[in-house]
């Protein structure tokens, strides 16, 4: 399965669970996306969000017990789209970002592809 017309875009991935991060990175590559950077904690994510060029970000909502909001704020300021990955549903999203796209963990390849495509199109 490949992302229609949007493959080749780059993704910044923030996920604290190493195995989940590896699995999502593999899924992204299978969909035709390039992983621009990966982070497993908030400090690293903040640094990479500032220093890396990417087309979209996938942000775990809870990174080692810390809410992802500071990273989302940086990415929003860059004018870059992002989606949240969460096991808590939309009620687990930071309040100021409840209007943003979210994908419920665990997710399948096709759901990930659809969510990324919609966010890149601005749906």
Secondary structure layout plus pairing:
Blueprint: E1 10-14, H1 18-31, E2 34-39, H2 42-51, E3 56-60, E4 62-63, E5 66-67, H3 69-78, E6 82-86, E7 102-104, H4 109-121
Parallel strand pairs: 1-2, 1-3, 3-6, 6-7
Antiparallel strand pairs: 4-5
Domain Response regulatory: 10-120
Modified residues (4-aspartylphosphate): 60
Organism: Bradyrhizobium hipponense
Could you walk me through the main structural features you see in this protein, from its secondary elements to its overall organization?
With 123 residues, this protein is α/β, with parallel strands linked by helices. The chain has a single domain, classed as 3-Layer(aba) Sandwich (Rossmann fold). Helices cover 38% and strands 23% of the residues. The protein contains four helices and seven strands; from the N terminus they run βαβαβββαββα. It has helices at residues 18-31, 42-51, 69-78, 109-121; strands at 10-14, 34-39, 56-60, 62-63, 66-67, 82-86, 102-104. The strands form two sheets. A five-stranded parallel sheet has the order 2-1-3-6-7, with helices on both faces. Strands 4-5 form a two-stranded antiparallel sheet. A hairpin with a 2-residue loop joins β4 (62-63) and β5. Residues 10-120 form the Response regulatory domain. Keywords: DNA-binding, Phosphoprotein, Two-component regulatory system. InterPro entries: CheY-like_superfamily, Sig_transdc_resp-reg_receiver, WalR-like. The modification 4-aspartylphosphate is found at residue 60. One of its GO terms (molecular function) is transcription cis-regulatory region binding.
